[in-house]
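Help! Submission page says 'invalid entity' but I think these are all valid:
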Amino acid sequence: MPVKETDREVVLTRPDDETTSVTILKYGATVYSWKLKSEEQLWLSTAAKLDGSKPVRGGIPLVFPVFGKNTTDEYLSKLPQHGLARNSTWEFLGQTKSDPPTVQFGLKPEIANPELTKLWPMDFLLILTVELGVDSLKTAIEVENTSTSKELKFNWLFHTYFRIEDIEGTMVSNLAGMKLYDQLLKESYVDKHPVVTFHQETDVIYQNVSPERAIQIVDKGVQVHTLKRYNLPDTVVWNPWVEKSQGMADFEPKTGYEQMICIEPGHVHDFITLAPGKKWNAHQLLCKDELNYQAIQ
Ligand code: BG6
């Protein structure tokens, strides 16, 4: 069976290759495993909670309607860090395509975490589409403002944790020359380095990254992951390194930061504002590609 549903999760397997699969937890509609020919592509903490008691530490948590902790908006500022989508149980809407195998999940205020919708009383409908390619995984989101009178103001982000061999041998290409906001230094500047490398805690937001740029994770000269984006202008690059990992109870093993890098495409530098009845769409595509160093413009 290409789709297996349990109370907790949905497993989608390619009919032509049972070693390629994706597992989506209903809580947060969180993809927490993507196996390509039996090889896991995503990082998941061994202490991640998969029982709905907290957002999943690893995989692809969904960030909506706010990235980080907001301090200025009347309602968004009441929500916890990264909003309510990753702390709500989504509805499984079923399989929508057989080739490539595709499933959908939905979230609306009536079924979202009631503690959080009380704090952010807005009308919305989210549809997440997960498409399992031969050697790719596409996650697409549609946000609809279901209100007849109020605007919907939100951020969106796919908080993708990629599995890697060794953080110090890893580089991320095709972000050079971009303006970024460093969340640790609280400063904006242009990244002049030809590639991004990691030797300490990193938490930066690259802004207005052209959709033509394929962001590549390269391990000792070999492309291991390629990330393509649609309608997601910002890219967060995050690695907690030693101290931050120590401080996160659900981050295990404590040396796990060596095997992960978060490359998170989103729209977070400013808010999207949707008029009543309007829809907004975006997606990320995780795939394999030739190494392609794109010149700095
Ligand atoms: C990243 C942020 O997206 O998520 C970081 O840029 C944050 O600042 C990280 O620490 C993890 O967030 P959380 O809420 O899952 O611990």
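Support: the input was valid. A stray whitespace character was the problem, and the output above is from the cleaned input. The CA atoms of residues 36 and 184 lie 34 Å apart.
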